[in-house]
Amino acid sequence: MSHESIRNIGIISHIDAGKTTVSERILFYSGETHKMGEVHNGQAVMDWMPQEQERGITITATATSCRWGDLRINLIDTPGHIDFTIEVERSMRVLDGAVAIFSAVEGVQPQSESVWRQADRYAVPRICFINKMDRVGADHARTLSQMEERLGARPILLQLPLGDEADFSGVIDLLTEEALLFDRGDLGKTMLRRPLPLECVERVGEERLRLTEALADFDDSILADFLEGRRVSTERLRLALRSATLACRIFPVLLGSALRNKGIQPLLDAVGLYLPSPHEVPALVGRNPRDERHETVGCDPAAPLRALAFKVMCDEGRMLTYLRIYSGTLRFGATLLNASRGVSERVGRLFRMHSHRREDLTEAAAGDIVAVLGFRETFTGDTLCDAGHPLVLEGLTVPEPVVSVA
Ligand code: GDP
Fold first, then answer.
1. N- to C-terminal Cα separation, the chain
2. Closest ligand 1 atom number to CA of residue 131
């Protein structure tokens, strides 16, 4: 698989907004259970919750890999407490993009504000999911205004809800102008695509125009078409949306109810459409411990290996080390140099971690996230390299915090 199709993402939210539920649903819709519950013609439904509970989905894993179409999504656990700057820096360094979850009832809460600011600080591109659209008092428009007022963000709504509160049954995709119906309640994974309901056509036309106008700020050809009253194709709107999202200038917003299995498939699609592959994020800088020279590390599988250990845990008496590979290719059985400590380490086993199994790998390339069994002296934050090419990855260049004067 090419590194182009990887997305290393974290989910950030205020406690209770639905991070756990969204993560579980992402693993369900994109995990191995996908094959079992494959939907044909939008009809087949399976009662998956009890099965999943028996299997015990591990959403607390440090990094869990899943598939969505051609995409490999590595879901990275982000620290619950954002006070520990070093922890935040590590997780922000490892993920390339994030899904920010808000509750449609509670809106922007204090913790969503602080994690948002951290992500701002590290320039992490984000898409937003306004969850709990099924609850009494859900108001996505209010949440959008709060994002503007409290976060100083520019949210871009990509969907309109179909039905309110308990009757929330789907969304209208403003880009494709079709209705997406999540009509199987708690039971299934069916999503039906339907033409717009007649009564919505006018409103959707207006909203799409508003979206076009917003994107015209980032794209001159869209601006020209907008001013001339020409329709801009979905593909062009997506491209503009993608580049503005990658630059953290706007934040696409989707709607749903994770608990009721509504809105997860479009969210997964949006992860692929609008969040960056490892290839599209700024290169890291490393320092050669032998001559103190600095080197940039781009996402190239043919370059020397540079991998960051971002979590070390004990696994039945052996160390399980999670690695983000920034460049090169990591191979099973290889002897590596821990450049941070000047010690050799051997890759005893190499895994991709799934929600309820480990997949043995023979190799993994730049951009990916894997776990290694068998390291002895590696700690969180260390860099692993090919023995002949030592380099210590350094912190992200973080702008100085703004000091406010009272
Ligand atoms: P976390 O603290 O952010 O991980 O939030 P959880 O995923 O644990 O959700 C907090 C509570 O909200 C739980 O009781 C969930 O069942 C509930 N919840 C999550 N998503 C939804 C939703 O879409 N609708 C409703 N009504 N409840 C939800």
1. 53
2. 23
Average pLDDT of the residues in 115-124 = 88
In the chain, the amino acid numbered 324 is: R
| Ligand 1 atom nearest to CA at 22 | 7
Mutate to test the pocket of ligand 1, among 25, 165, 259 (most ligand atoms within 8 A of CB): 259
Closest CA to 307 of 397, 381, 395, 398: 381
Closest atom, ligand 1, to C-alpha of 133: 23
Give the Å distance between the CA of 120 and the centre of ligand 1: 25
pTM of the model: 0.89
Contact between 163 and 170 under an 8 Å Cβ cutoff? The reply is yes
Please indicate if the annotation marks 360 as binding a ligand: no
Residue 41 assigned as binding residue: no
Reported confidence tier of residue 8, pLDDT bands at 50, 70, 90: very high
Residue 265, pLDDT score: 93
Nearest-atom number in ligand 1 for the CA of 17 is 3
Q: Are 286 and 385 in contact (CB under 8 A)?
A: no
- The ipTM assigned to this model is 0.99
**C-alpha 186 – ligand 1 centre gap (Å):** 14
Which residues does ligand 1 sit against, CB inside 6 Å?
13, 15-21, 131-132, 134-135, 257-260
Is 134 marked as binding a ligand? yes
Instruction: Tell me how far apart the alpha carbons of residues 100 and 171 are, in angstroms, rounded to a whole number.
Output: 19
For residue 61, the CA-to-ligand 1 centroid distance in Å is: 19
